[in-house]
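Whiteboard transcription, Tuesday session. T.W. wrote the structure tokens on the left side:
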């Protein structure tokens, strides 16, 4: 065999050895926060990509635990490919090497709203939480977070998301801090003490949720009187006949991003997937079935979409408090530790 043919043969053998075998190859795994959004995105985004490309896509649910993803990367055992993350976790995961850099030669950058196409993530959807309750039980229920702290006027269990993020902001809002001063106050030791002290005042009546479905379930069953839950799910329940108020003055909101886990064996496919599910056409289809606030400009600014989806975050940003990404990137770990200790006593 000549030297040229030998080199070609060796190169072919190396390529075959490096390629995943049928046993090793796996489907593209997409992981999000579940609920109605993911149930609808499964058809309009994930499986639409599968049909368009012939690739196989599966999806799973998690609760936003960055440490879980980081552990995969450090163990060189990455079983998730594309993950939806909240803004502070995106920043931290990009800095510590948990997430891959987005390939903007594949994902078209100019289709996103300003600031939502970053080094390691592309904008997915806006989301928010707000106070709600069953108006059949409480026709004149609390209208503000300050009201939520009035146990005498409105007795009953309160339900909030487990963790410091949003919980501490809500405590300060309930204590009379102006929305535009919340993070200025919370950045100080005195402000953090103030927030925890405010939570102490209703701690015996506080319960905590970890899954986004729980607020609707526990309000619906009557196990809790008042809850802070995802507005998209609340709005969907209202559209289905539930008597829940949409109190936009209690809105806290942010934008989630799609990212690719570093070391994913499907990284190239994941980039093509991201480009597809953030294009206007599949998002327009999704908007027919679920009230979304996409970070893709053409859809977010479409008057027809905004009119058809009155509860989308883009329609109510001026009434709410934006969850400060920089603050939680800087203070998140310390406040998570303090909250865990506080909640356990």
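and on the right, the sequence the group agreed on:
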């Amino acid at each position: 065999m000549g030297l040229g043919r030998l080199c070609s043969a060796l190169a072919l053998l190396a390529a075959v050895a490096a390629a995943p075998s049928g046993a090793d190859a796996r489907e593209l795994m997409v992981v999000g926060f579940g609920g109605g959004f993911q149930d609808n995105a499964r058809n309009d985004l994930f499986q639409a990509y599968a049909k368009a490309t012939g690739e196989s896509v599966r999806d799973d649910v998690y609760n936003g635990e960055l440490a879980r993803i980081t552990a995969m990367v450090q163990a060189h055992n990455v079983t998730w490919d594309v993950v939806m993350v909240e803004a502070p976790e995106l920043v931290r995961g990009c800095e510590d090497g948990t997430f891959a850099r987005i390939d903007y030669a594949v994902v078209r950058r100019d289709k996103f709203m300003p600031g939502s196409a970053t080094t390691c993530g592309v904008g997915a959807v806006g989301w928010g939480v707000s106070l709600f309750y069953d108006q059949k039980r409480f026709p004149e229920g609390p209208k503000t977070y300050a009201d939520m702290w009035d146990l005498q006027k409105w007795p009953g269990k309160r339900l909030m998301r487990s963790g410091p993020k949003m919980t501490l902001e809500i405590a300060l809002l309930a204590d009379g801090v102006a929305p535009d001063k919340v993070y200025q106050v919370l950045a100080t030791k005195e402000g953090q003490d103030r927030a925890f002290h405010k939570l102490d005042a209703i701690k015996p009546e506080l319960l905590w949720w970890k899954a986004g479905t729980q607020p609707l379930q526990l309000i619906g069953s009557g196990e809790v009187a008042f809850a802070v839950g995802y507005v998209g799910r609340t709005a969907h329940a209202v559209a289905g006949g539930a008597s829940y108020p949409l109190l936009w003055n209690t809105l806290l909101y942010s934008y989630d991003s799609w990212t690719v886990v570093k070391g994913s064996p499907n990284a190239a496919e994941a980039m093509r997937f991201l480009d597809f599910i953030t294009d206007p056409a599949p998002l327009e289809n999704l908007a027919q079935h679920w009230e979304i606030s996409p970070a893709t400009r053409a859809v977010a600014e479409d008057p027809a979409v905004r009119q058809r989806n009155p509860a989308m975050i883009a329609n109510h940003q001026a009434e709410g408090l934006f969850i400060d990404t920089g603050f939680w990137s800087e203070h998140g770990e310390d406040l998570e530790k303090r909250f865990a200790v506080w909640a356990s006593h």
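Someone added at the bottom: Residues 3-24 have pLDDT under 50 and may be disordered.
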